[in-house]
């Protein structure tokens, strides 16, 4: 008997933790800032509900319907052909994603340390130079990578109930508490309403084709779909839980966190006449500039960075678990041994990304350094391909009766939407994903 989640709430919080990471709290604000604010947010909501959510339900059905982790789930449901490689593709994608995701996690850990020791905020501080010093140091970058992965290994070696579930039950509520405190402080700043208007008042003239495509890609990224992480998580799930209802809760939590992230960031940015379209540097450069000018700024910045760290590490659990579960779900190997080996492999593979802004800064492939190239490969190529493979697998390869049965299980009247979900997976979802993939490459 495979280990299972101890409760419905535990599964939902763990899945929400997997989804609510850098995508919701870092990537979403800076993409929104670069694409005109409110219009991007509305398009993102639309794609999340009608493309991302059906894909999330699909991964849940594959996992619980097969009772297998990602590598063997597809093989059990459709043993012939290349379809069984979708899970393996997801494992490779998660591995590559972790190699640069963990580097960012290490940067955040470094900033948390600097904030807690009072070493960040200084009047008229040069935060560009500080960020450059952090990412430009091989020792800091590799140490951050090792510590971040080490924390993952410690939690995942404890298993599903005692590790992932317990940590998420503690960190996810704390994440919301910290986020709400930051929002209250941000909204009480003079001039904050300009930021609220930017974020919530849609200006569709400011949105571009690139912005629409980025909104769709963000809906994939923020729900952790495409690499079968949710297949693995749902394989630990019993039959007493409604899959579409669980997916709905996770989507709502994700959208709420995205809304709260925008309300935390943009009012503060506009209150101090800073630029909302500063891109990926928003977390490491713009926000310290904001907090340095606030009473108790060091305290609020520490809370904000801890918030990002909680979100980052709960998402990374799912990325590493998909690799660990491939060797432990059938009790073939001890979990702690597999967790350590997988962690070491990620650290070794992540070193080139950690050195991309220092010792390996002159190593350029396709006009990108190792970090940026891995990010592009994962986000613009592998992620939409993974979503497309899953959509085609659900829409055309798995027996419809099995899918509908899993969809309707314990779903009550919500089960009546099963046919609409199946129609979306056969038509709209794969077509839209294909468009995103083609334009993403262009």
UniProtKB/TrEMBL annotation:
Keywords, in A-Z order: Membrane, Symport, Transmembrane, Transmembrane helix, Transport
Predominant localisation class: membrane
Subcellular location as annotated: Membrane
Protein topology in the membrane: Multi-pass membrane protein
Pfam families: SNF
Residue intervals passing through the bilayer: 9-28, 40-62, 85-109, 129-158, 170-188, 219-237, 249-274, 294-324, 336-356, 376-398, 419-441
InterPro entries associated with the record: Na/ntran_symport, SNS_sf, YocR/YhdH-like
Keyword Membrane on entry: yes
Top-rank taxon: Bacteria
GO cellular component labels: membrane
One function term, GO molecular function aspect: symporter activity
Family designation: Belongs to the sodium:neurotransmitter symporter (SNF) (TC 2.A.22) family.
PANTHER family (UniProt xref): TRANSPORTER (PTHR42948)
Protein name, entry field: Transporter
């Amino acid at each position: 008997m495979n280990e299972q989640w101890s409760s419905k709430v535990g599964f939902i919080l763990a899945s929400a933790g997997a989804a609510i990471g850098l995508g919701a709290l870092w990537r979403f604000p800076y993409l929104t800032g670069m694409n005109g604010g409110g219009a991007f947010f509305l398009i993102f909501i639309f794609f999340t509900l009608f493309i991302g959510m059906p894909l999330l339900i699909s991964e849940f059905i594959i996992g619980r319907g097969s009772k297998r982790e990602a590598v063997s789930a597809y093989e059990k449901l459709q043993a012939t052909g290349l379809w069984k490689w979708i899970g393996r593709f997801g494992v490779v994608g998660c591995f590559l994603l972790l190699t640069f995701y963990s580097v960012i996690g290490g940067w955040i850990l470094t900033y948390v340390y600097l904030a807690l020791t009072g070493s960040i905020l200084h009047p008229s501080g040069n935060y560009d130079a500080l960020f450059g010093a952090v990412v430009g140091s091989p020792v800091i970058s590799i140490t951050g990578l090792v510590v971040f992965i080490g924390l993952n290994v410690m939690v995942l070696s404890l298993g599903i109930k005692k590790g992932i579930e317990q940590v998420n039950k503690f960190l996810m509520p704390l994440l919301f508490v910290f986020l709400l405190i930051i929002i209250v402080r941000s909204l009480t700043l003079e001039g904050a309403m300009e930021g609220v208007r930017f974020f919530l008042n849609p200006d569709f003239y400011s949105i571009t084709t690139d912005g629409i495509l980025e909104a769709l890609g963000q809906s994939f990224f923020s729900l952790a779909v495409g690499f079968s992480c949710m297949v693995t998580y749902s394989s630990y799930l019993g039959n007493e839980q409604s899959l579409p209802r669980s997916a709905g809760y996770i989507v709502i939590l994700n959208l709420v966190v995205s809304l709260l992230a925008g309300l935390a960031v943009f009012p503060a940015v506009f209150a101090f006449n800073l630029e909302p379209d500063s891109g990926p540097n928003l977390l490491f450069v713009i926000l310290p500039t904001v907090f340095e000018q606030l009473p108790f700024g060091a305290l609020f910045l520490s809370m904000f960075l801890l918030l990002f760290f909680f979100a980052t590490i709960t998402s990374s659990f799912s990325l590493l678990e998909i690799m660990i579960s491939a060797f432990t779900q059938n009790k073939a190997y001890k979990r702690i041994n597999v967790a350590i080996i997988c962690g070491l492999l990620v650290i070794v593979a992540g070193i080139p990304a950690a050195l991309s802004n220092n010792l390996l800064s002159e190593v350029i492939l396709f006009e990108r350094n190792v970090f940026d190239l891995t990010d592009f490969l994962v986000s613009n190529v592998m992620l939409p391909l993974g979503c497309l493979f899953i959509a085609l697998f659900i829409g055309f390869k798995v027996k419809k009766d099995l899918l509908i049965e899993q969809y309707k299980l314990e779903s009550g009247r919500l089960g009546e939407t099963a046919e609409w979900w199946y129609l979306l997976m056969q038509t709209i979802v794969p077509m839209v994903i294909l468009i995103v993939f083609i334009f993403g490459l262009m």
